[in-house]
């Protein structure tokens, strides 16, 4: 009899255990089936307008120093994996710095530039300046921050290929085609396929990022001219015992010329570095560049600098690359290879305004290394220059001088 009760008790325990196990599996399946983003449509059920915050203060607007970090509070997408938001001009970060020759750290440049842009709030409509007489948002182009490319920090060949693949991906996307009737196409007239293509402003990263960018642009536009703001030539012949070792932030233009990516009508602005000798300048000429030195701004003036750059480029498709070390390290210390005697931020911004109306196919700002910064002054300067890039790429020509109490007869000749 006892044996019978023990058997019955064991069967009951087994049945209870099986029931519990089956219930746990169903519970796990239910948990697994919950959407990963935990997004539910509750706005229609919750009376937001009657809640304490909304009824008193309205929308949850970001302040200059709050909210998710995107350039100037732009809308943000990871564009390489999300094509749901077409754009006319995109911002992309290339956090890469493993071909530097002196101080590394420019992989943190995209973050520093976005951080420096927070107070601009262009994405919230705060972009008008007296210098431009307009805001980038006035021209009907869709502006989007496309995030950063996840670039290898260990394999330079892979990293350069990743940057080319990313840039080519964005360059091949269809444009939005404007947000209003004031929008104007800018690239269809000289693209090889006769289509309008997005334009990209890239946040570097060390200057080698320009090589994969030029490779991508060549597929769409053929050889392009380059306006190169920098303290250094960056056209030195590749050196090293391997092909990859020869690609650095000081040789990438020479590599680009060898690959046929450049026209013979490019130009430097702000050069003031130490060289081996006149042979460096002679080689630079074979790469296809003219040189405007940092001192030329004193001898000839800003107007002549602008005039000579425009004469050199004329109506060709042109790419603008700006190394932050073109600015004097007293105003932009956070860079890898600082050179004293540079231009001021105001001089650089003035020249950029004077270049408006050229056929820009893209632009970048590079070599911002925030570990060497003080009170974010370099990041803030770089962000403001990017704001100028956007206006420069959108307006039809240089803006007129601000009048105020002045008239045209008061202008400096």
From TrEMBL:
Protein keywords: Hydrolase, Metal-binding, Signal
Family matches, as InterPro entries: Ureohydrolase (IPR006035), Ureohydrolase_dom_sf (IPR023696), Ureohydrolase_Mn_BS (IPR020855)
Similarity annotation: Belongs to the arginase family. Agmatinase subfamily.
The keyword 4Fe-4S is annotated on this UniProt entry: no
Signal peptide positions (record): 1-17
Listed name of the protein: Arginase deacetylase
GO molecular function, one term: metal ion binding
Gene3D superfamilies assigned to the protein according to its UniProt record, in alphabetical order: Ureohydrolase domain
Organism: Lentinula guzmanii
Swiss-Prot/TrEMBL GO biological process terms: putrescine biosynthetic process from arginine, via agmatine
